[in-house]
Amino acid sequence: MTASTETVVALGASAGGVEALTCVLSQLPPDLGAVVLVVLHTAPGAVSRLPEVLARAGPLPVAHARDGEQLEPNRVYVAPPDHHLLVADGQARVVRGPHENRHRPAVDPLFRSAAVAYRERLVAVILTGALDDGAAGCLAVKRMGGQVLVQDPAEAAFPSMPQSAIAADHPTAVLPAAELGAAIVDAVRKLPAARTPEADEELQREIEYAVLDEDTIASEDVFSQRSAYSCPSCGGSLWEAPDDDSLRFRCRIGHAFGSESLLVSQSEALDASLAAALRALHERADLARRVSRRMRATGRTDAASRYDASEAEAERDASLIRSVLLTRDSNGA
Questions:
Q1: Handedness of CA 77, 79, 85, 91 (dihedral sign)
Q2: At the top level of CATH, which class does the domain 8-190 belong to?
Q3: For FRET with 183, which of 53, 174, 192, 221 sits at 20 to 30 Å CA-CA?
């Protein structure tokens, strides 16, 4: 098969993704004829051995992508921890831009940049994972003429990411992980000849948020419609993307959320606020108790009674908040 840097396979995964990626990469031949890019959600600060693990899976060499390096066919480039992986002009862009869908690296920035750069010469693959990262990226891939393959949610360790990708648009195929490798090879062989990428200002602007482009984040508006919600990451206003069938939001400096990711982020912010309130109420009750004792020691019983009431009120409110924290689920119900 003729190798080409004008053909890209981009894979995105989250929870359960190591096993799924290993399964897919083990099926790819050494002469695949395409650049392979991988995003797996990883924790910041972690030492990632993912390239070593994936290199043992199949014949293709695997390494963490380096910013500015020229992409070569028949190689696998993995997003480093705490950095987005983008592509532009045949090169890797490794940037520490704003979190998208609560993650960095995230799948959406990779898919979006590859869609603009490679159009019909892109095969995007969504594997197991929680929540909805990758769904907006799949929309961009289909919009620019690329193909989208999705792991069958019924066999995915975590089906939410595949389900969200399927709901976002009609993928080219939905297959078990054991069949995705063959589907990738078949798709690469049948891709049309490369064309000059056409400008897409809306997608290009979203790519620029991922690299914290100064002019882009200085703009007064993100999308045409400002939402009623605030960004859980920075507290700024969120704008709602004009997508037809999905709810998606972005703030002025680029934090982005699908609806599921935003709900979970709001829930985490609420947990933090409730925890802060619980702490403050216990501190208030403790201080009121100490002041009351001092008042009684000096014979000021009337004033001590007022502080006793403040202590009881704080303890009652703290008990209520504690009950809420114990009974909420991860979506805030």
A1: negative
A2: alpha beta
A3: 53
Exposed, middle or buried by CB within 10 Å (0-12, 13-18, 19+), for 4?
Answer: middle
Q: Which of 84, 99, 132, 133 is catalytic?
A: 133
Residue 43 has pLDDT above 90, yes or no: no
pLDDT single digits (tens) 171-212:
999 999 999 999 999 999 998 876 666 768 889 999 999 999
Domain boundaries, the chain: 8-190, 214-260, 261-327
Q: Which of 14, 160, 227, 261 is catalytic?
A: 14
The predicted pLDDT at position 333 comes to: 44
Q: Is there a contact between 151 and 29 (Cβ–Cβ < 8 Å)?
A: no
- Please confirm, yes or no, whether 14 is among the known catalytic residues: yes
Closest CA to 163 of 140, 207, 129, 114: 129
DSSP single-letter state for residue 199: P
Is 200 considered catalytic here? no
pLDDT (tens digit per residue) in 310-321: 999 999 999 999
Tokens representing residue 306 in the block = 């007022």
Q: How far apart, in whole angstroms, are the C-alpha atoms of residue 299 and residue 315?
A: 25
Catalytic residue among 41, 84, 99, 255: 41
Q: How many CB atoms lie within 10 A of CB 245?
A: 9
Concerning whether 133 is annotated as a catalytic residue, the answer is yes
